[in-house]
User: Fold this.
Amino acid sequence: HVQLVESGGGPVQVGGSLTLSCVASGIYAGRGAYCMAWFRQVPGREREGVAAIGSDGRPVYAEFARGRFTASQDNAKDTLFLQMTSLKSDDTAMYYCATLPMYPCAVDNFVFGYRGQGTQVTVS
Assistant:
């Protein structure tokens, strides 16, 4: 049974920081076997890719995330992280992690293999 479970969201003040986690189970997500990605969505708006990290361990970011967000992966624990700093009210959204089974491992690739239920981030 494949499961991606996000956590770490919550309310935060503008300028603050949060670190999101995504634990993968039931799939071999360790050692970069999958491209893992973070995306976010606000009701009524298009979803946005945030970051993607592939087998080389080098994350790629959406423009808005570059310099503020850091994606990383603990392959031994099958956990994906998203460290977010200098948060803005525009960062308020539900944040999801997902696997991207199809090339490319990129923030504008929304062909998901598996995705989690999301964790809400509210910046005010």
Observations:
- The radius of gyration is 13 Å.
